[in-house]
Amino acid sequence: MSATAWKPVTQKDRFEQECCFQALSSTLQRMFFLLPGMILTLKETGLPKCVLSGPPQLEKYLEAIKIFSGPLKGIDLAVRPHSAPEYKDETMTVFQIPIYSERRGEDWPSPSPERLSPGRSSDSGAAENEQHLLDGNPVNRTAQASSSSLPEVAFLFSLSQLHVKKGNFLVLKAKELGLPVGTAAIAPIIAAVKDGKSVTYEGREILPEEICSPPDPGLAFVVVECPDEGFIQPICENATFKRYQGNADAPVALVAHMAPECVLEDPRYQQWMERFGPATQHLVLNESCSSVHNLRSHKIQTQLSLIHPTIFPPLTAPRCQEEHAAFPVPTVRGECLLKYQLRPRREWQRDAVIVCNPDEFIAEALELPNFQESVQEYREATKDVPASAAKQYPEIVFLGTGSAIPMKIRNVSATLVNISPDRSLLLDCGEGTFGQLCRHYGDEVDRVLGTLAAVFVSHLHADHHTGLLNILLQRERALASLGKPCPPLLVVAPTQLKAWLQLYHNQCQQLLQHVSLIPAKCLQKGAEVSSPAVERLIGSLLAACELEEFQTCLVRHCKHAFGCALVHASGWKVVYSGDTMPCEALVQMGKDATLLIHEATLEDGLEEEAVEKTHSTTSQAIGVGVQMNAGFTMLNHFSQRYAKVPLFSPDFNEKVGIAFDHMKVCFGDLLTVPKLMAPLKALFAGDIEEMEGRREKREVRLARAALMSREQAAGPEDRAPLQKRALAEPPPSPQSKKVRAQ
Ligand SMILES: [Zn+2]
Ligand SMILES: [Zn+2]
């Protein structure tokens, strides 16, 4: 939700060329889910400094996310303590008002770290690995240990007050009065009248209201979060808010309430809302608000579903909730890009609110050259593939197929494997995975969360694991609403994940009771598992997912990065690479896989960049599938530079497909997936052309650079023939530069 009139303040400092981003995050929970991605996005925009305001635990939390976020280097993160005096710039003053729950101290039994690490005592490598992790960043172990006492529960509220805005100088009126408009003499006159002072010009007194519009009063607006009933009384009694209710110096134009319906329905809370007076607008932001927030994702999915409506199922419409609290004051439910203008006139503005019209998207696609023909040809070519009436399992749902940072069309890594109608498993769980599940499954999302038996986290880059916390909490909520028990979720992950979960548990909210962590290294071939507890967990993992084998191997990416292979009792084998360069261990582990899901971050020709970033190119990933003798290779984890579609490689064959967010396939679909290429090329012709243009330019640049360096190496008499030869050479083909899998 955003109401741009009061979104976080961005202030550019022209002199120091430093930009300061003030973000006010009210609860630590919200930050855990959203902050890492937001910071990565801000960093992408070139923001050098980000100042965060928030609850007391914010600083420790920031330390924690720095542990896992190598990519956060390059942006200076600072924290403004919640007790700091108000923030002031040329537009407004922002007050932070911490509120403490009445229930402070309740419901916070001591955390039990053992719960999370069944193998702690015997898993000798864990301590060593963790130490390595902590070596990289000075997180104080004793600080973590001591924080197992009850955290201070505080929520921050922001009250912002716009400064009084001076009136505008009325040029025409000044001219009428014969003032020296357009000359240097007018400057002191303007300054004086804007300050509300009279001036004397050529013996005549001129009042400010004669040549200046009246000043705009200092309005205030409030952003308040009340996560549960425990905060209602403290909010109602808060002295700072009381000052702005009734006859305040600055009238409150808008109060934005981040509060669930149960709080909004509470008579005490409604009375508090009323006390701001009839002129104050109220904005509700909670789960009852429904609006399309990502038009591009809806558009692409609608168009893809024209090609194949079950492989690319249309996204679900936003949930509509009928039961809303009724309010005694003017209240608006939030929508994406809804604006409230504070100046010059106070009003709601809906011009940017997204309206989703699928018919338009369809019409646009049908007009594309060759699109309809290629879809027709695709249907012809696949009409002999037997369409199974019954749903087939496993069913693979790609929830996030982009790398690094979440973007509109491709979210970060997450793949749902529906093993059977009531068993599923997630391969990685990047930020926003829950949101993707909601968009894919709509009202079915709770049922799907209820089937989730395990999560595999390949490595601890932010694009692979930061969605896990929300999945854990939402799964707990979903199971409770279904009236089912909530056994711990089995999470196969590098041991280092433990520290991160522990920190959240200690600082913010209990969740360790919902997790059973199986160190990924314990599932490596030949690994000795000396802990009976871990052994038991592995047993329940295999049983829960109906697997004969769940194997992991170290891959060539960052430290502690794993790939995995799942062998089902019925014989199918799914192999997932995580992030990696071509990796022999993965090839060995994945022999004869039914399906390989392999990262293909970069296009062919970018082998050097791929090595630098420890990723694979398209043809390298396809090569790994060939070496593995995989029945099918599905490429994913594309660099976000390929927003809609990656560049196709000449190595594409009938056993290769590319993944899209929300694409859903079963093994029976794999025969037809390669045939999707022609309609996909028609749908994305414009984007492909643009990317090919970039590639051509790059190749010309490389050829020139090579020529220059050869010229420098050669003597002057050799130069002419060399030049001729270089120009006659075709640009290097992707194959010739291919780095072989090792
Ligand atoms: Zn990644
Ligand atoms: Zn990575």
What report would you give on this structure?
It is an enzyme of class 3 (hydrolase). One of its GO terms (biological process) is mitochondrial tRNA 3'-end processing. Belongs to the RNase Z family. There is one protein chain. The chain has 742 residues and is an alpha/beta fold. Among the domains are: 3-7 and 15-102 and 152-160 and 232-293 and 325-349, no CATH class; 166-210, no CATH class; 395-671, Metallo-beta-lactamase, Chain A (4-Layer Sandwich). The protein is built from 27 helices and 28 strands. Residues 459, 461, 557-558, 579 line the site of one zinc ion.
Describe this protein with a few key phrases.
disordered C terminus, metal-binding, alpha/beta, about 35% helix, endonuclease, 7-stranded mixed beta sheet, Metallo-beta-lactamase, Chain A, disordered N terminus, metal ion binding, RNZ2-like, 27 helices, EC 3.1.26.11, about 750 residues, binds zinc ion
Query: Which residue ranges are poorly predicted, with pLDDT under 50 across at least 5 consecutive positions?
Result: 1-33, 106-154, 717-742
Calculate the mean pLDDT score and round it.
Answer: 80
Q: How does the major sheet shape up?
A: 7 strands, mixed
Helix content range: 25-40%
Residues in β-strands, percent: 15-25%
CATH architecture classification of one domain: 4-Layer Sandwich
